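Quick one: structure tokens for this chain, please?
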Amino acid sequence: MIVAHRPEELPPARRAVAIGTFDGVHRGHLRVLDAARTAGPLTAGPLTAGPGMEGPNLEGMRPAVVTFDPHPRTVFGSDVELLTTLERRLELLAAAGMEDALVLRFDEELAALEPAAFADRVLRRIGAELVAAGEGFRFGRERAGDLGLLEQLGFDVHRVPLVDNVSSSHVRTLLAAGEVGRAATLLGRPAEVEGTVGHGDHRGAGLGFPTANVAVQPDLLVPALGIYAGAALGHPAAISIGTNPHYGGTARRVEAFLLDFEGDLYGQRLVLELWERLRDEAAFESEAALVEAIGRDVERTRAAVRPV
């Protein structure tokens, strides 16, 4: 997938464009992306050909996505715990079939752009002929632009209905409660935690369960504290999100023991899938009891099933 940060960085092409923030790239987002990816001959809408006339040929367009970074709500003063980093969002957009991505820096200048000017400076400049978005999509100064305006400006518009109860906000609520299975149903894939592997206290190796200590960006959502079964790098992984209460810890950490894995992960980016929440974190009466509990967590992880 070609990734650009300014319209002129994309090579000239006719494009079917999905537009939105797409944080989490959940099932509702996938419908919007599919509308751009599967664009075919025009069959409805204001540009439909009349009797004896041929409508515009919308076949052969490159599926593309226009997305925003940072999250627009943060520019207006709201705190947003993101479901994905920009890097992960782009990976998921590519996996959904997008061939081009334009990542626009969302700032006050972009927010103040008149809707028609946005259409000219962004959409027309990248060759957009079809625009797909959720039916409530708004853009431009004071959010005055909508899909109806894009139709008036001559774009073929695909309004994509919302998926019932599927939204980034709903996913955040479920993950904050540790309900990773239900979140996976909304996402269409397992929930994830992502970060860079750094050095921890190295206690896990001494207990026989060496863990990767994953440093997560401060603006990313981290699910509820607890012990999870999941996976990373193709290996089952027992994952702890917590404060190490057995050792009197107070700072939240994300640590993963990758089963049957050998290698050095320090400094590497690691994406952890969370399949099932196994239990609350706890302090134990002895280190031997802690090791026994971890052993049970590992066996349950080995038997866990990917939720989607």
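The two ends are 25 Å apart (CA to CA).
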